[in-house]
Write a structure and sequence with these properties.
Belongs to the universal stress protein A family. Residues 11-155, 164-279 form the UspA domain. This is Universal stress protein. There is one protein chain. With 292 residues, the protein is an alpha/beta fold. The protein folds into two domains: 9-124, HUPs (Rossmann fold, 3-Layer(aba) Sandwich); 160-291, Rossmann fold, CATH 3.40.50.620. It is built from eleven helices and ten strands. It has a ten-stranded mixed sheet with strand order 3-2-1-4-5-10-9-6-7-8, with helices on both faces. Helix 4 packs across helix 6. It is elongated and about 65 Å long.
Length: 292
Amino acid sequence: MTRKTINRTTMKKILVPCDFSDSARQAYKFAIDIAAANGGEVILVKVIDLTPVYVESLDSNPYYLHVTSVLKELEEDAWNDFEVFTKAIDAKNVKVTFVTEQGTVCRTLLNQIHKQEADLVVMGTHGVHGLKEFLLGSNNGKIVQCAPVPVFVIHHAQSFSRIKNIIFPTEIDLTQNAIVEKIKALQSFFNATLHLLYIKTPVNDDKMAELEMSLRNMARFYDLNEFTVNVREQNSEEEGILKFATDLSNSIIAMGTHGNKGLKHFIAGSIAESVANHSGETIWTYSIGAQQ
């Protein structure tokens, strides 16, 4: 069947959280590529978080008494870093705007997403592992859970033009209209093949052939085009997704998250957030829970 044309304007305004690190540089490059291909613009956001200054300055003359002067100095430093940062990377005639805002990272970025009316967030990450992840999670993970727009999590430099495959880990579920429509638009944008992936864990007694047939029926239900159906056995969903992605070159992983909160999220976490933290691949996520 001929692939339907889908409106690409949903990635016009791209917000990039920026701390001027190497991971932020990779995210910025990727955002520039998307904007250049789409006639879009990039908004770099530097969050100035004074919380550590407040906590660590409990002496007779703490810095928080002079927060205005400290903030002004940090803003000047950020603008100087911005000049150096952007001069080193070709913007390809894309409009680039720089914004600073004081606050905690997650809350400030969510505020900027709404304020800038962003369509997409592109974030760099080094990944988070072990005890720190269990207790605190990462700022990236929090944005993945809460952002009202799709989020790309970038681990390393990936050529925009080489993305030919989109891996969509999924349950066999006919109530995923919101996430599937977003992924169809993503597939159209990259002109990529969509790979439906179902991970069969040891607790699932269904036969492989039955699962494959159900996955094909789901693809027909959603009127998908240019796709493959893949069922893999693995001990956990995360392990299965990461292994499949490792074996498929020129790919990104596209996942939905329900934005779990509270004790459930603390104990189990979100598979999408976990994959975003541990995969070396580029991850695209869309928080269904943030839309409800």
